[in-house]
Amino acid sequence: MQRLAIITSGGDAPGMNAAIRAIVLSCHSKHIECFGFYHGYNGLMDDEYQLLTPDMVRPITQYGGTILKSARCPQMHHDSGLEKAARTLRRHHIDALIVIGGDGSFRGMMALQSFWSGRLIGVPATIDNDLACTDSTIGFATAVTTATQAIDKIRDTANAFERVFIVEVMGRHSGHIAFNVGLATAAESILSFENCPTDNLKHVERELIEKIQTQQQNNHSSFVIVLAENLWPEGPQGLKTALFDAAKIESAVCVLGYIQRGGSPAPEDRILATELGIEAVSAAISESGVMIGKVNGTLTRSSIIRATEQNKPVDQALHSVYQQMAYF
Ligand code: F6P
Prior knowledge:
By secondary structure, this protein is α/β, with parallel strands linked by helices. It has 2 domains: about 5-140 and about 265-310, 3-Layer(aba) Sandwich (Rossmann fold); about 140-260, Rossmann fold. It has 12 helices and 11 strands. The chain has helices at about 15-30, 40-45, 55, 80-90, 105-110, 140-160, 175-185, 200-220, 235-245, 265-285, 305-310, 315-325, and strands at about 5-10, 35, 50, 95-100, 120-125, 165-170, 190, 225-230, 250-255, 290-295, 300-305. A 7-stranded mixed β-sheet has the order 3-2-1-4-5-10-11, with helices on both faces. Helix 1 (about 15-30) crosses helix 10 (about 265-285), helix 6 packs across helix 7 (about 175-185) and helix 7 (about 175-185) packs parallel to helix 12. The longest helix is centred in the middle third of the chain and has 22 residues, at about 140-160. The mean pLDDT is about 95. 6-O-phosphono-beta-D-fructofuranose binds next to loops. It is found in: Cytoplasm. Belongs to the phosphofructokinase type A (PFKA) family.
């Protein structure tokens, strides 16, 4: 292999820079030229790239975001866009493309397979941790740490004012962030897809009201609800209104939002990104259509189809820990 290209695609995740660095240094040691295309797949549409050298990536591990920029690319949903991306890769005689991103980015990669005969490798990076075939995705550990620190601060105010807080965390449609952060912050309630039937949220609401009222009768203290985004109709404001309308319970809302996606990566993410990046270059020499992961401490190469199509549920053990912590 002589030429490899990389892109970072979809939602940025802390640790993407560490993965870029690992790939570039690994290419350098193997005498492979490394092309960095900018703005995700858009860089392939617009032929916007730079040859990446070790000097360009040495001081970036500690930074969030991505030096290659990121974007979502609607053109990848159409044959014309896929053909355009393939043409760019052919024009530069690229042998392999490494995509650092989440499931949407990997779906684009699978679609590209029909238009380009080069090798395609995925490196899982998303704060949501919603990809199978890897215990953790790059960025997840940092997002959990950031959200935990934020809720610890909110808890001070919640305690001081003996207030109910509804804190919305990210995760798209999965509850990995919600459950991990909820447990780490000893949240009184975790509301996520995994433990709330979306067709019976009235029942969830009734149970929640009962829990808040029981706690308020027993002792005056704070009550933190960690709410997964996209779960409740009209989001945390909708839940706030529901609690007030049904039981006159006052609450404060805080949406953590994009602070969970930014910031200096946690050491776990830097290390994971470095390991996955190096392994991705090795895989790109002979394989295609695989995602690099780490399962039970071992680096793995799994079919990209399995990684995106298989569901990765929140660990059952976390559910049961949460159940056992409910003492009202
Ligand atoms: O996938 C990462 C993520 O931050 C999700 O948690 C969130 O739902 C989504 O991206 C937000 O996407 P956008 O950057 O397009 O607003």
